[in-house]
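Table S2 (continued). Query chain:
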Amino acid sequence: MTGSTMEPGLLSPQYRRAVADTEPGRLLPARMPAEWEAHEATWIGWPHHASDWPGKFPPIPWVYAEIARRIAPGEHLRILVNSEKHEARARRVVRDAGLDLAQVEFFRQATDRGWTRDFGPIFVIARDGLSVVDFHFSGWAKYRNWKRDGAVACSLARQLGYPLISAEVDGEPLVLEGGSVDVNGEGLLLTTEECLLDPSVQARNPRLNRVQIETALARYLGAREIIWLGKGIAGDDTHGHVDDIARFTGHRTVVLCQEANPSDPNYRALQENRERLEGTRTGDGSRLEVVRLPMPEPLFYKGTRVPASYANFYIANSAVLVPTFNDPSDRTALGILAELFQDRPVIGIHAVDLVWGLGTLHCLSQQQPRAVGMTG
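Corresponding output:
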């Protein structure tokens, strides 16, 4: 990981100067809305890559169908399928699960896997309406089967008729997955040093430094302030995605996972993240409200620890969907989130099978905001 002498969790002074020295509106032409803002649609990629769930694939389409059933009442559901045959299977499962197919649109768009959060289109709202940012997916700098996923954002922007913004730094593609960032819709962005700054393990942009990445996040996502956490959780093969550890639930409120067992590998990393968040002051001098979210007991399958986390929830128009793990902490996590999201029901989705694919609800979904123009 890159060294730094600055106070953890805060923006680098060089980044602050870059923003201050830039003409108003030039560095921040668009904003990424918060997930709880109104959606036009949610995108998911219908599962087909059985080796993501070795020995457990048969129930996975039914988990997706339950997720679809909870999302579709409040917004369009747009499902990526690989072929006519793949679409027919998806239609049969969602219909049998009781979903009205009139609420669903199928897009025949070949994918390698199903983790739409990370390779799907990231939508931003600019003064001229909705645009798609292409962050040049590369398989988490780990897997070889990514090229079809890497083409999805460009293809869908073209099909939908939205302007496509190619994320670049000094003429080179910028690689970033949707699960590596979380935003409050007003310029605050959460991410981790482990994912975006580690130069040797799953390095997405090994030639870029911290200031270059911060400036790119400002330019393409409207991040006026970036809060850097440290490490992610054990079992996460993305090497530190923030959506397994901390999420905005309001403009000034963040839920943060905490491990109660001092002997657990997550304990120290999550404690350090708490210290960073609680010690961070935003640009106006205020602090965020940090709400602690429990971790479930460690979950293993065939000797492999999987990244079970309640932070991987998805905020749809009609509900907040939360992964559950047949764990005593399920009820506590659902209760905490229900207090924070009082404008829509909080619903648990059984994710013990799903998480064997090393991701759950947030990882497989991507929101398309309702275009209402820029504010401010």
